[in-house]
Design a protein that fits this description.
The complex is a heterodimer.
Chain A: H1 6-20, H2 23-30, E1 34-38, E2 43-48, H3 51-72, E3 78-83, H4 133-144, E4 153-156, H5 163-177, E5 183-187, H6 188-201, H7 204-212, E6 216-220, H8 229-244, E7 248-253, H9 265-271, E8 275-278, H10 284-297, H11 304-313, H12 318-335, H13 341-347, H14 360-371, H15 376-379, H16 385-402, H17 406-412, H18 418-434, H19 436-449
Parallel strand pairs in A: 2-3, 4-7, 4-8, 5-6, 6-7
Antiparallel strand pairs in A: 1-2
Helix pairs in contact in A: 4-5, 6-7, 10-11, 10-12, 14-16, 16-18, 17-18, 18-19
Chain B: E1 2-6, H1 7-18, E2 33-39, E3 42-48, E4 52-58, E5 61-64, E6 66-71, H2 72-81, E7 87-93, E8 96-101, E9 104-109, E10 127-132, H3 133-143, E11 158-164, E12 167-173, E13 177-184, E14 192-197, H4 198-207, E15 212-217, E16 221-226, E17 229-234, E18 253-258, H5 259-270, E19 278-284, E20 289-296, E21 300-307, E22 309-312, E23 315-320, H6 321-328, E24 335-340, E25 347-351, E26 354-361
Antiparallel strand pairs in B: 1-5, 1-7, 2-3, 2-6, 3-4, 4-17, 7-8, 8-9, 10-15, 11-12, 11-14, 12-13, 13-26, 15-16, 16-17, 18-22, 18-24, 19-20, 19-23, 20-21, 24-25, 25-26
Classes of the chains: A alpha/beta, B alpha+beta.
Chain lengths: ~450, ~375
């Protein structure tokens, strides 16, 4: 018999118990019990179904059990009784009667309490395209050799690009590959709240221990840690502790580690020390694949025409794309058939951004306000650097978002030649490609204009 | 031991307590018995099947103290045969107990009571609320039938009770339909939630008195204490699904019908339902009516149309008729409102003017 194997140990204990008590007693009290674990400090944890059992074990069988396990080895100091969760007990086999009724989709809404992972996020439902191919390969590399290949793995990209899906899928897959290992997923906001709570309750040490025993820690939306100095420091120490013991860490953020504002330099360095990958904007083929997959998951076949329309009609995030698909599925279920292109156009009118007739002056106001300059200077013939850039941005936005002709833009902005305008637009367009700060600025300005 | 009890009280007590004894004969004989205790606190009867337990006080004269265990089924037979008014006397000598009532006398062999388990009380019952027993009784008996009868998923074979903001919410679902009932409580302070196995809840409901009781619970155990005794049950130790997310928030058609019409039409239509117990409901907003339709290839078919107030768009949905009629037992409202969110989405049934009930039933495949 192997003392370390709970099952063998319990079987041995049972054979001894059976000799000492009546069969009815044995059947009643011992059939549903088992050893949960053998503690390192010599405490044996026995799982029982309910409080009735726990009381009775303590009252009647405690000394008997203790005597039996002491005979096996003096290592066992004590026995404790735990009331175990129903799920852990073996469910009786039962054939389900299918009545043809649809089940309420209760299963989708389970979130595993012990690791916070949502079981819906798996690699099976993850669409791989050129935009996230690298991120996917890195995830697979992490799964193949956790804690060694890329540690930490830092995934960043704009909202709705599938960061959370990817990192949760890693967690779920890891759990499948290594059932005995501990995985934990949390957002950085939860981390901060948890830390402040534990400081308030005076249990900061317990907090440290709690996070240090995970084999895979996944932290989402790390950018929310900015300016939370104490939490950052705590994360720094946690990072070192996990990294030194080769435990895998995964982070996600909406920007690159070095671009996260107000975060300690030493933490920044550590975040970027492993593998940093960004998930870009999905190309139209990937978007089509996503639409197809989402629709198929709900059992609806869309025509190629509709899929193409959905994927190209707007350049929003994948989340918005999912919203459109859901709305179409809803319509399809009401009508009972897959919609054609005309119906789709009709039902998606609410999703497409309205083409506003916004005045040039309004745009100039907003942009000038954004850069903190006097709006009059935009119209003047000055070439001061702080004015030139905003003016170019205005031209770019007027051209790209509102499709105003080059000559019109020129005349509206203080009588400039249309070639100047073309040059400015091209310049900004080029720079967006390389300068992520500028891209961010323009994104922010666009939200101001909505 | 020597005690005497009024026959009527004895009969009632045996009837309540013996339900809690183990009915399977394979286990300990002590579990299939009722323990009668005559002590300083008066006369008590106890029984448990290790899932639930009861400790009931009985009024009676206690001449000498003592403890005795008797087989529950035997006691039940004796109690149901007692008819006329009067007193029953129990006297204990050796391992024989003599029951004397009027002119008759019977001697029963007792069961050794050493193996009779102690009935656990919640260890640290900081969660406690006072509520009328009759309220809990009605809640349990009405909703327990909606819980799953299979034990594969213990959380669905349980009733979910949550106390928040002075409202007690009870939920039961077998994943094909879901019932939620809300009742207001008089004290607003306590919060908490637990899962009680539906089978246990039914047993407890039978034994609850009508007047105020104290309900307390901890992680593994709940107890219902009244002046006449105490009831305990094991709790289900599992996570209940976040059922609120499956309740459709939008609707495409809503109908209000008279309960009487609905009940009769359903009853007549279901005679013709097939082996899947399928009944189709059609909402017709133009004619302001809803109709039931059932077809059985072997028997024939039937349809019933009833006047209703229908607003929204036309829709056909099929259901298992047993799940539809189950809604009738849950509310006493004169009119019912049916709200549908579309094909393949669950139908919501509510009583008009009865805000306590929400009943959700999933349609069948078309």
């Amino acid at each position: 018999m192997d003392k370390g194997n709970p099952r063998e140990l319990w079987e041995y204990v049972l054979t001894q118990v059976e000799l000492s008590i009546s069969p009815a007693n044995f059947n009643t009290w011992f059939r549903n019990s088992f050893i949960v674990k053998v503690g390192e400090d010599g405490v044996l944890y026995v799982g029982v179904p309910s409080q009735f059992f726990k009381d009775w074990y303590l009252k009647k069988f405690h000394s008997l059990l203790l005597k039996i396990v002491r005979e096996i080895s003096y290592e066992f100091r004590n026995i404790e009784y735990l009331i175990v969760k129903d799920e852990h007990r073996k469910p009786p086999k039962e054939n389900k009667v299918v009545r043809g009724a649809l089940e309420l989709p209760l299963d989708e809404f389970y979130i595993n309490k012990s690791d916070n992972l949502n079981p819906r996020y798996t690699f099976d439902t993850f669409v791989i395209g050129s935009f996230n191919n690298l991120a996917y390969s890195a995830a697979q590399a992490v799964l193949a050799r956790p804690g060694i290949t890329y540690n930490p793995l830092f995934v960043y990209g704009d909202t709705g690009r599938g960061k959370t899906h990817l990192i949760q899928a890693i967690g779920n897959q890891y759990k499948k590959n290594h059932p005995s290992q501990k995985v934990f997923y949390l957002t950085s906001e939860k981390f901060v709240v948890d830390y402040t709570d534990s400081v308030q309750a005076g249990t900061a040490n317990r907090f440290k221990d709690k996070y240090r025993h995970y084999d895979l820690l996944i932290m989402d939306d790390i950018q929310f840690l900015s300016k939370k100095e104490r939490s950052e420091e705590e994360l720094f120490h946690l990072f070192n502790a996990l990294h030194d013991t080769n435990k895998q860490i995964i982070f996600s953020s909406d920007r690159a580690p070095l671009a996260i504002p107000d975060i300690a330099e030493r933490l920044k360095g550590r975040l970027a020390s492993g593998m940093t990958i960004d998930i870009g904007e999905p190309d139209s083929e990937s978007r089509m694949a996503i639409v197809q997959k989402k629709a198929a998951m709900h059992g609806i076949m869309l025509s190629d025409e509709v899929i193409e329309y959905l994927a190209t009609s707007m350049s929003g995030s994948i989340r918005e794309l999912e919203g459109m698909v859901n709305s179409i599925i809803c319509h399809a279920q009401v009508k009972g058939s897959a919609p054609d292109i005309a119906e789709v156009r009709q039902s998606l009118r609410s999703f497409t951004r309205p083409q506003k007739n916004i005045s040039v002056k309004n745009v100039v106001d907003k942009v000038a306000e954004f850069y903190g300059i006097d709006e009059e200077s935009i119209y003047e013939k000055t070439r001061r650097r702080e004015v030139v850039r905003p003016r170019q941005v205005i031209m770019y936005i007027l051209r790209e978002d509102f499709s105003i002709s080059y000559p019109t833009i020129g005349t509206k902005l203080g009588g400039r030649d249309h070639t100047t305008v073309i040059h400015s637009c091209e310049k900004i367009k080029r720079e967006i490609g390389v300068d992520s700060d500028l891209a961010k600025e323009i994104q922010n300005i666009r939200t101001l204009l909505v | 031991m020597h005690i005497s009890i009024e026959k009527k009280k004895f009969g009632e007590a045996v009837h309540i307590v013996s339900r809690f004894a183990e009915r399977k004969s394979t286990t300990l004989p002590a579990l299939a018995s009722v323990l009668i205790i005559a002590g300083d606190e008066g006369i008590k009867m106890r029984a448990t099947n290790l899932e639930t337990g009861i400790d009931l006080k009985i009024e009676g004269e206690c001449a000498t103290q003592g403890v005795v265990a008797l087989p529950a089924t035997l006691l039940q037979h004796i109690a149901s045969s007692l008819t006329e008014e009067g007193i029953i006397t129990l006297e204990h000598t050796g391992d024989i107990i003599s029951l004397t009532s009027g002119t008759g006398k019977s001697s029963i062999k007792t069961v050794p009571y050493d193996d009779f388990p102690s009935i656990p009380f919640p260890e640290n019952p900081k969660n406690r609320i006072v509520l009328p027993g009759v309220l809990l009784k009605n809640l349990f008996t009405s909703i327990a039938s909606c819980a799953s009868s299979s034990t594969v998923r213990p959380e669905l074979a349980s009733i979910y009770l949550s106390i928040e903001g002075g409202i007690l919410t009870a939920v039961a679902t077998d994943s094909f339909r879901l019932a939620e009932k809300k009742v207001p409580l008089s004290n607003k302070g306590t919060q908490g939630k637990f899962l009680i196995p539906a089978k246990n809840a039914l047993d407890i409901a039978q034994a609850l008195p009508d007047d105020d009781i104290i309900m307390s619970f901890d992680e593994h155990q709940c107890a219902f204490v009244s002046t006449s005794g105490m009831l305990v049950s094991r709790l289900t130790n599992a996570v209940y699904p976040d059922y609120r997310q499956i309740i459709p928030k939008e609707s495409i058609v809503e109908a209000v019908v008279l309960r009487k019409d609905f009940e009769n039409a359903l009853k007549r239509t279901t005679i013709f339902s097939d082996t899947f117990q399928k009944v189709r409901i059609s909402f017709d907003p133009k004619k302001n009516s809803i109709s039931f339709f059932a077809r059985n290839a072997d028997i024939g078919e039937a349809s019933e149309t009833l006047g209703a107030h229908v607003s929204g768009s036309a829709l056909d949905l099929s259901f298992n008729h047993r799940y539809l009629s189950a809604a009738l037992a849950l509310t006493s409202a004169e009119s019912l409102s049916l709200t549908a969110a579309g094909i393949g989405r669950p139908l919501i049934i509510k009583g008009v003017g009865d805000t306590s009930l929400l009943y959700l039933v999933s349609p069948m495949n078309q």
